[in-house]
Design a protein that fits this description.
mainly alpha, disordered N terminus, elongated, single chain
């Protein structure tokens, strides 16, 4: 298991290692913030899935419970540590969510790119389900981006720490 970044930031007084120390210190401060923010978003995503339980069939409700159950372990793992596995799981899960949400929107539109407004709704107004779906989709997109940033920052931190250890 990798040591926590904040505990592993080496100190050096001169040479090229001294030039890298500020970058390492900055990365070690930012990575925990990033992972905790991403973990909190995963928790919010789980709550959004639970809020969607009454917006469809029983099968859709069971699917929402399952999706919420999948979001929570990712959130916990990411909250606890910034492992490559945790970042990858969050990124992959949310990329899959974007694909599924895109498929659902296209299916609801009968294969067209835009979803038609349901009969009886004012043009421009969204139903509660649509707001939840758009919110979940936006969160998924943000989590994919944050997971990518977390993977890049983590790899950079590990490379720099390994080169400093030599």
């Amino acid at each position: 298991m990798m040591p926590r970044p904040s505990a592993a930031v080496p100190r050096a007084d001169s040479g090229p290692a001294a030039a890298a120390a500020p970058a390492l210190a900055n990365c070690s401060r930012e990575l925990p913030r990033l992972r905790r923010t991403t973990a909190a978003l995963a928790g919010v995503s789980a709550m959004l899935h639970l809020l969607m339980i009454g917006h469809g069939s029983v099968l859709a409700g069971l699917l929402m419970v399952g999706m919420a159950a999948l979001c929570l372990p990712c959130a916990v793992h990411l909250w606890q540590s910034a492992t490559v596995r945790a970042w990858t799981a969050v990124g992959a899960m949310n990329a899959a969510m974007l694909i599924v949400h895109g498929w659902m929107v296209r299916s609801a539109a009968g294969g067209h790119a835009a979803v038609e407004m349901p009969a009886g709704s004012a043009e421009g107004s969204l139903t509660g389900h649509e707001v939840l779906m758009l919110s979940a989709t936006a969160l998924s997109g943000a989590e994919v981006v944050l997971a990518g940033v977390g993977l890049v920052l983590g790899a950079s931190w590990r490379r720099r720490a390994a080169s400093r250890a030599r």
